[in-house]
Fold Probable membrane transporter protein.
Amino acid sequence: MDILLYLGLGAFAGILAGLLGVGGGTVIVPVLTFMYAAHHFPPQYTLHLALGTSMASILFTSVASLRSHHRRGAVDWAVVRKLTPGIVLGTLAGVWLTAHMSSNLLKVIFVAFAYFVAAQMLMNIKPKPSRQLPERGGMLASGGAIGVVSSFVGIGGGTLSVPFMTWCNVPLHTVIGTSAALGFPIALAGAVGYVVNGWRVTGLPEYSLGFVYLPALVAVAGVSVLTAPLGARWAHALPVAKLKKLFALLLLVVGTKMLSSLF
């Protein structure tokens, strides 16, 4: 039953990664948290394990997704190059901070973040037509912020990079493809950070590599790389308004589910 749940989660996460450029972490993290709790993993580390496993799985999903978007010319590699240095530094710093936080505090951060971004997307606030991407310093700072928050909530950065680039008047389909590409450096830095910071932690479940639970990683990543191209194909066929609403509703659902686990 566990394997079937992991496989189903991987299939859904892969579609989300291709469709919305979010890496699938917005679904992977809460689902794994609930599954780990059901199996009586150490409660003080359930969310840390979910975050680490999510980051590691996004390594594989982001590659499959970005390849599909790149073939459609939807990845702005200049933006990727400018944001990546800040993203890597921010992600590593965020993982170190996360290792010293309680699971409940991380849940509160995840819920607040999900609601904030969902509200922003549903209100459909239009940026000024003259607004553009910032210069190198601004891109470095923006990448750092995306990296820190991504490491806190175990995502590939799409829930921040998508509204950031949209606010800077980048076309949405290019935003989604570029966000998928940004998921790789975030996931790489995050996965390494969670492995290193959990390496000496005692009491973790068998088959854990630091804060990465390998059975879940293999199943989720193995299927998500197959479904990510399907999501990418849908992203280029659906209208912009529906993509935004889908993105916002997803965040509201997972945020509410995570919130309910606090009580």
Q: What stands out?
A: The longest strand covers residues 208-209. The chain has one domain: 2-260. Strands lie at 208-209, 212-213.
